[in-house]
Design goal:
two-stranded antiparallel ribbon; Rhopdopsin 7-helix transmembrane proteins; receptor; 4 strands; GPCR_Rhodpsn; mainly alpha; globular; transmembrane helix; transducer; single chain; two-stranded antiparallel sheet; transmembrane
Length: about 475
């Protein structure tokens, strides 16, 4: 700005103020650079600039605005604390019960892995989310913002990929029970899911950082955790969006196809079981051939028995042998002993065990299906809002308070999935419910202090006399 005095004045500060007061809005006004006007006004907009009027006032106003916005998010902070505690307690119980009380199968291995994974990701992500909510306008740590968004993206991707691996394991278990998947393959799939999630989430470190956001105070900007200001190219935005959407679409499509095929297979098995009139054991041993003439454990063999039956002067018990089916009664033909054991009994036992395994596999498949549907419902708002945030800056500059609160809630709905998974096990798995109840009872009994035992020095006769006199 030049040193020229205001029009109609002598260059003094007081004359300049008087001329400015009387000047019309259409006149061009030249103001001295040392005029007090520039201490409280912006040279571009003419509005009051708190940061130019005084650094302490601007900082105080920003802190006040940050505090006011954080007070509206206190309820969300309390909910996050509750979700963190429920996630730790519920998934720790899942790990303990499925690891120590149940058999080591591929399904139980996947359950333990998923529970441990959710404990780790929740313990890392929730405290960072609480810091962002507590400092919505004064989050200056760019490194913490990058790490938080990276952990957040890893948490979502690893759960989706792990549930996809579990769906593949369930499909192999139901369709090819003979060629079951070994546990080392299940471990390999889970580890592969973690590694893929770690790699696919790397673009979040580049994209997110410190973001300048407007406040309710005119010309005072805050700093939040969002798409970094120094990210000007759309290439980084596309690099972040594409792996995230591909992971979501691939997991959703794969789980949908596999569970549809599994439900079709289950329905076919049920219809085939209902259509069978004769079991495999009865086809092998029809009712007319129920009795056999050979008993390997009998003291009288088949040839001896036939000779014994040919004698007309036989009297008394025919045979007192004891077979696998039981002890024969006197006068009963040992060749007519019903065969209740042997091949027929083992076939019936094998058929029952197979049906029990099918029921257990179907139940676990249904549980994993519910967990997968819940995961998709909780993760979908996060995917959509993060994609919208990467495409445009409108999300980071939301001004209406109601929209800001709705956004902060919806983008964190994925944190509902970890505490709800143990609840699904409690509702759908009777064995887990029984073992969890037993575990809680043991913990409750161990926490109770035993009553002190008072030992008396009096003998038994003296105690009896004292009771009698009392």
């Amino acid at each position: 700005m030049s040193d020229q005095a205001p029009a109609g004045g002598d260059g003094g500060g007081g004359g300049g103020d008087g001329d400015r007061a009387g000047a019309s809005t259409d006149e061009i006004l030249y103001i001295h650079h040392g005029d007090p006007y520039w201490n409280t006004h912006d040279n571009k907009t003419g509005h009051v600039n708190k940061s130019l009027a005084g650094g302490s006032n601007a900082t105080g106003d920003l802190a006040s605005a940050n505090r006011d916005l954080a007070m509206h998010l206190v309820a969300l902070l309390a909910i996050l604390v509750v979700l963190l505690l429920l996630t730790i307690l519920g998934n720790a119980m899942v790990c303990l019960v499925y690891r120590s009380r149940f058999r080591r199968t591929t399904a139980n291995l996947c359950v333990v892995f998923l529970a441990a994974l959710q404990i780790v990701t929740t313990c890392l992500g929730v405290p960072m989310e609480m810091a962002v909510l507590a400092l919505p306008l004064m989050f200056y740590s760019q490194v913490a913002c990058k790490m938080m968004r990276y952990v957040e993206t890893v948490s979502v991707c690893v759960v989706l990929l792990t549930l996809t691996a579990i769906a593949a394991d369930r499909y192999c278990k139901l369709t090819r029970p003979a060629n079951f998947v070994p546990q080392r393959w299940a471990k390999g799939l889970c580890i592969l899911a973690v590694l893929l999630a770690l790699v696919l989430s790397v673009p979040a470190i580049v994209l997110f950082g410190s973001k300048s956001v407007p406040t309710s105070i005119v010309n005072v900007t805050g700093v939040a955790c969002g798409v970094a200001d120094d990210v000007s190219s759309n290439l980084f935005r596309i690099i972040y969006i594409v792996p995230l959407l591909l992971t979501f679409v691939f997991s959703l499509a794969t789980m949908a196809v596999l569970y549809i095929l599994m439900f079709i297979r289950i329905c076919q098995k049920k219809s085939a079981t209902r259509g069978e009139r004769v079991s495999p054991a009865r086809r092998e041993y029809p009712r007319k051939h129920r009795f056999v003439t050979e008993d390997s454990t009998s003291s009288c063999g088949g040839e001896e028995t036939r000779k014994f039956h040919t004698s007309a002067s036989s009297s008394g018990p025919i045979c007192t042998s004891s077979s696998r089916s039981g002890r024969t009664s006197p006068g009963m033909d040992p060749a007519r002993v019903p065969l209740k054991s042997g091949v027929k009994e083992s076939a019936r036992i094998g058929q029952g065990a197979s049906s029990m395994v099918d029921v257990q596999s179907t139940r676990m498949t249904f549980i994993f299906f519910i967990i997968s549907v819940l995961c998709v419902v909780c993760v979908t708002p996060f995917i959509l809002l993060r994609t919208l945030q990467a495409l445009t800056d409108l999300v980071d500059t939301l001004q209406p308070l109601a929209l800001r609160i709705v956004y902060e809630v919806c983008v964190r709905l994925y944190l509902l999935h970890p505490p709800l998974v143990p609840l699904i096990y409690l509702l759908c798995n009777h064995n887990f419910r029984r073992e969890a109840k037993h575990l809680l009872q043991k913990v409750g009994l161990s926490c109770q202090r035993p009553a002190p035992i008072v030992q008396s020095n009096t003998s038994g006769r003296e105690r009896k006399n004292n009771d009698y006199h009392s």
